[in-house]
Design goal:
By secondary structure, the chain is an alpha/beta fold. The protein has 2 domains: about 290 residues, FAD/NAD(P)-binding domain (3-Layer(bba) Sandwich); about 200 residues, no CATH class. The protein is built from 16 helices and 20 strands. Strands 1, 2, 3, 4, 5, 6, 17 and 18 form an 8-stranded mixed sheet that branches. A 5-stranded parallel sheet has the order 7-16-8-9-12. A 3-stranded antiparallel sheet has the order 13-14-15, with no helix packed on it. The longest helix has 21 residues. The protein is globular, with a radius of gyration of 23 Å. The structure holds NADP nicotinamide-adenine-dinucleotide phosphate.
Length: about 525
């Protein structure tokens, strides 16, 4: 048992969400002593913190789950096609209990620094409770979207009402009945929360800077027949996910170019997939994410949908995205999002041309007008991918800070390691498919790759691993090259750090596909960890 004082273990894992729990399980299997530090009061990561109304996953429930235990697969049953936050949190708690994982986790404890000592080949990890732990391996399982971004509007401290960030939602929930609520932000989170808050609030003001494309999820209960079929076919399903581009399957194989079919046929195809739900329309043709003209056809289709759903033409116009190709920002998925603007208690406020000037004592001022509010909800997203790592003072060889090394953008080899930081492994780090994939699939792949690597090191009597300079440079160039082949870089998205003032604009995730990436990682390992220096 960890006594809270000085301590030495084989590995420290930071975070007890999907990644940290599975990494702990695999380290235990290897017989390694492990300490997991978790800032939250319990397991769950993203699903522990993001308890806002309407929080739900955009991956199909059976696909958004662990594959490592056939028994777990068979005993757990999801109730809806897209799982809601409480159900995912219950699942992760079940996993923690079932595999008795909590005993190596220290909760309510944030890692403040991790310094590498080359002489001892050890990481010294310090927490906000003052404990220090020495570890041979340091594994970050900190999530990609776990550092809330809360813009510092002037006057924020003057506001007399309640302020919430969706990523730090009160556990007891919030009752908005009869209240005047302002929501800032219309990303995936805002788009999920707005319809639910609108049903409760007296008056809801949505402060929108950039309109977003959104697809109706068409979430529904899973039938007993579907549960039985999934359970009978998990093995095949996992194989499909692992080889797929996004770690997710709709059972749709994109066919041909959107530019090679008639307008009528294209419309029919889009309409069929729109009615099917979720991101299905993005899978209609092979060139939607690489050819602007093809992309425009789908974008126009969704723009026409917005115009047909939203009754007030002026509101519909403000809700219509024109500044980025569809799918180049993480596409939200909704339940009654555009329909919500037909409610008499919902007002859309365009803060694109008249940015939010200040939060006042009574509410929020924009365009010279003050909106009186009882509560403000920040659905303003996260400092993605690098934010959670930079929150920790990570120093490698020669005392070099990770933040310093990555000042111009993250540099990794395979998104798993960074030169100068030996024995530091990042689960779903920048430069890996991560946020462009169904996370559990990418998480399991990383955890298994890391665990196999540690086993290999033990078997070969190796003490240190870090990337070679050339291998890292080549990987960073490759990540950029494949991103530039797509339309992704055309959007001011959090994928390129555009949501955080001053953050370098580099496309952070790897867009080359989960299946291809897995193969590359496997080849590197099969060649004795090619591109890494092992000593
Ligand atoms: P986000 O996509 O970054 O959206 C933040 C929103 O806040 C944007 O509309 C942004 O406007 C607005 N905003 C930020 N600063 C502002 C300012 N100073 N003034 C006015 N508006 C401002 O964050 P998110 O919605 O939390 O989503 C982040 C990611 O989390 C998603 O893309 C997704 O990967 C994940 N997520 C997944 C699910 C799911 O699976 N269902 C649900 C929620 C989130 P601009 O666009 O103009 O910057």
């Amino acid at each position: 048992m960890f006594d809270g004082q000085s301590h030495a273990v084989d590995a420290v894992v930071i975070g007890a969400g999907f990644s940290g729990l599975y990494q702990l399980y695999r380290l235990r299997e290897l017989g390694m002593t492990t300490r997991v530090f978790e800032a939250g009061g319990d397991v769950g990561g993203t699903w522990y913190w993001n308890r806002y109304p309407g929080a739900r996953c955009d991956s199909f429930s059976a696909q958004y789950s662990y594959s490592f235990s056939p028994e777990l697969e068979q005993e757990w049953e999801w109730s809806e096609t897209y799982p809601a936050q409480p159900e995912i949190l219950r699942y992760l708690n079940h996993v923690a209990d079932r595999f008795d994982l909590r005993r190596e986790i220290t909760f309510n404890t944030r890692v403040s620094s991790a310094h590498y000592d080359p002489a001892a080949n050890r990481w010294t990890v310090t927490t906000d409770s003052g404990a220090t732990v020495a570890a041979t391996y340091l594994i970050t399982a900190v999530g990609c979207l776990s550092t809330p971004n809360k813009p510092s509007f002037p006057g924020i401290d003057d506001f007399k009402g309640a302020v919430y960030h969706t990523g730090l939602w009160p556990h007891a929930g919030v009752d908005f009945s009869g209240r005047r609520v302002g929501v800032i932000g219309t990303g995936s989170t805002g788009i999920q929360a707005i319809p639910v808050i609108a049903e409760q609030a007296g008056q809801l003001y949505v402060f929108q800077r950039t309109p977003n494309f959104s697809f109706p999820a068409r979430n529904r209960a899973v039938t007993p027949e579907e549960i039985a079929e999934t359970k009978a076919n998990y093995h095949e399903l996992r194989a499909i996910l692992r080889a797929s581009p996004g770690g997710l399957t709709y059972g749709i194989d994109p066919q041909g170019s959107a530019l090679e079919v008639s307008a009528e046929e294209r419309e029919r195809t889009f309409e069929g997939l729109w009615n099917r739900g979720g991101w299905a329309p993005l899978l209609a043709y092979t060139d939607l994410q690489i050819n602007l003209a093809a992309n425009n056809h789908l974008a126009d289709f969704v723009r026409r949908k917005i115009a047909s759903i939203v009754k007030d033409p002026a509101t519909a116009r403000v809700l219509t995205p024109t500044d980025h190709p569809i799918g180049t920002k993480r596409p939200p998925m909704d339940t009654n999002y555009f329909e919500t603007y037909n409610r008499p208690n919902v007002t859309l406020v365009d803060v694109r041309n008249a940015p939010i000037e200040a939060i006042t004592e009574k509410g929020l001022r924009t365009g010279g007008k003050e909106y009186e509010l009882d509560a403000i909800v920040f659905a303003t997203g996260f400092d993605a991918m690098t934010g959670p790592l930079f929150r920790i003072d990570i120093r490698g060889k020669d005392g070099m800070a990770l933040k310093e090394k990555w000042a111009g953008g993250p540099k990794t080899y395979l998104g798993i390691q960074s030169e100068g930081f030996p024995n530091l492994f990042m689960i779903t780090g920048p430069g890996s498919p991560s946020v462009l994939s169904n996370m559990p699939v990418s998480i399991e792949q990383h955890v298994e790759w890391i665990s196999d690597c540690l086993k290999y090191m033990r078997e070969h009597d190796l003490a240190r691993i870090e990337p070679l300079h050339e291998a890292e440079e080549a990987w960073v160039a490759h990540v950029n090259e494949v991103a530039n082949y797509t339309l992704y870089p055309l959007a001011n998205s959090w994928y390129i750090g555009a949501n955080i003032p001053g953050k370098p604009r580099i496309f952070m995730p790897y867009v080359g596909g989960v299946g291809n990436y897995r193969q590359k990682c496997a080849e590197v390992a099969a060649r004795g960890y090619e591109g890494f220096a092992l000593t």
